[in-house]
Design a protein that fits this description.
Blueprint (H helix, E strand, L loop, with lengths): L1 E5 L2 E6 L2 E8 L5 E4 L4 E5 L2 E5 L7 E4 L5
Antiparallel strand pairs: 1-2, 2-3, 3-4, 4-5, 5-6, 6-7
Length: 65
């Protein structure tokens, strides 16, 4: 999965799909959602739920090369 942050949105490439999720309200960290998919990040930890029934994917930030 690749995530790129652009202003108030995140551009994701995950499971062969690309999507742009707008930033939503979050009590902690940054939360991005379109009402179906959800991406949340805090520090170096992140999670992604594409809303496809597969469940939550746990992610870690990797510095770009």
């Amino acid at each position: 999965m690749t995530a790129r942050f652009d202003g108030g949105a995140v551009m994701l490439l995950a499971d062969g799909r690309s999507m742009v999720l707008p930033q939503g309200l979050s009590g902690s960290g940054a939360r991005f959602t379109d009402g179906k998919a959800l991406f949340w990040i805090k520090g170096r930890n992140a999670m992604l739920d594409l809303g496809d029934g597969v469940g939550v994917r746990q992610c870690r930030v990797k510095d770009s090369d």
